[in-house]
Amino acid sequence: MPARKLPQVVIIGRPNVGKSTLFNRLIGKRLALVDDQPGVTRDRRMGEAGLLGLEFEAVDTAGWEDEDDASLPGRMRVQTQVSLKGADAALFVIDSRAGLTPLDEEIGRWLREQEVPVVLVANKAEGNAGESGILESYSLGLGDPVPVSAEHGEGVADLYSALVPLIADKAEQLELEAEQAKAIAADELAARAEAAAAAGEEFELEEHDPKAPLSLAIVGRPNAGKSTLINRLLDEDRLLTGPEAGITRDSIAVDWEWDDPKTGQTRIIKLIDTAGMRKRAKVVEKLEKLSVSDGLRAVDYAEVVVLLLDATRGLEVQDLKIASRVIEEGRALMVAINKWDVADDPSALFNGIRSALEEGLSQLRGVPLFAVSAKTGKGLDTMLGAAFKLRDDWSRRVPTSALNRWFDDALGANPPPAPGGRRIKLRYITQVGTRPPRFVIFGSRLFDLPNSYERYLLNGIRKQLGFGAVPVRLSLKSPKNPYDDNQGGGGKFSGPKS
């Protein structure tokens, strides 16, 4: 795992005491799903938190339940216990209105046996209703409770006072290390600029740093093996898995260092697990709707998205809908067929899925397709290497000279049509953005330009300029005055097309 930049504070407690509400309060946004029913959180979730200037990494955990380790609640508890390893402090949250329960006492006993310092947080303490519960909590032997109301933001100053002695030194140490790393990076940049000047070359900052961490989201239908695949990559049981469908609810991001076997480089990847996405008609419960919305937001912020298929079920209509959503959002898409180790007639399956993708995703041909196995690890390094290449294509800017040469050659090889004897004039092209690549063509009489010619230009950009299977946006713009026939008689905006 990459070195942590902030001290880590884990939030622990039984179900429905307000852990996720407190987590959201600390990080300043509604990142964790919150609902009245208990057991909403299942995997631990991390976020950068701030408390009156004190910065740390907050970790939300599943509600602690006294169940067999093999059951789903038991596996959730084990995940919570593992989360405390390496943490700098823990916030033990109780419901002051409900008072102490036997489960609170069990958690308290376990925490007293750990080496991590604990702050006892008495949540839901607004008004006077929580006073008896606060007094009861002294019996836990974890020091003075800190009364707070996570929902209303009360008690923040007291929580700050309790946390500062535990993590302030660690925060200062990590901040110093971060400043040293920035200084080293600045020195390296200055050295590159100096070397370019000595060689008589122009030095420009790269718009895209190919060494930057890759944000990689894994999406798909329930039970496709998304969490299992991420656990395989991490080589640890970081995410909750099991035979039950729909275990994952929140979108969980995990930073990970991957050693590329081809180059020997160590690359940082932010792996994002998402909830399974069923057909919209089947999603009726509020919590599942929130989970799917959370997964879609994760897609919006990812760079590359892996659509994971189940080899035992093949490609279904819902998979194509998910893929289309990814493309519409302008993310770089790749498809992986999981459970390849148990696939029947693998060759026919692979070719069949390839053909179905070409037919079902006509807006983007040639989406990368991989056969993988989360169980054995087959194909995962190949998939990750291709993900970095796809991100590079998605982030690339074409030099102006190369773009103009391609444009002139494309027009010369296949001139625009001349409906009614009046030729459509395409004057020039420019790239206006990346991630995804976006191009604008300026000209006149663009309302008359057939869609087939736009596809011709779009396909040329992909094939001849090396963008391959990344979504490309192409827009057409006319002169400012659309009513002046002398300027070209109108305008057309055809984007975004991909």
Automatic annotation (TrEMBL):
Region (Disordered): 478-498
SUPFAM superfamilies named in the record: P-loop containing nucleoside triphosphate hydrolases
Gene3D superfamilies recorded: 3.30.300.20, P-loop containing nucleotide triphosphate hydrolases
Biased composition (Gly residues): 487-498
Manganese as UniProt keyword: no
Alphabetically ordered keywords of this record: GTP-binding, Nucleotide-binding, Repeat, Ribosome biogenesis
Residue numbers binding GTP 2: 220-227, 273-277, 338-341
Residues bound to GTP 1: 13-20, 60-64, 123-126
EngA-type G domain ranges (all copies): 7-171, 214-395
InterPro entries reported in the protein's UniProt record: G_ENGA, GTP-bd, GTPase_Der, KH_dom-like, KH_dom-like_a/b, P-loop_NTPase, Small_GTP-bd
SUBUNIT field: Associates with the 50S ribosomal subunit.
Free-text function comment from the UniProt entry: GTPase that plays an essential role in the late steps of ribosome biogenesis.
Family as reported in the entry's similarity comment: Belongs to the TRAFAC class TrmE-Era-EngA-EngB-Septin-like GTPase superfamily. EngA (Der) GTPase family.
Listed name of the protein: GTPase Der
Taxonomic source organism: Aurantiacibacter sediminis
Organism ancestry: Bacteria, Pseudomonadati, Pseudomonadota, Alphaproteobacteria, Sphingomonadales
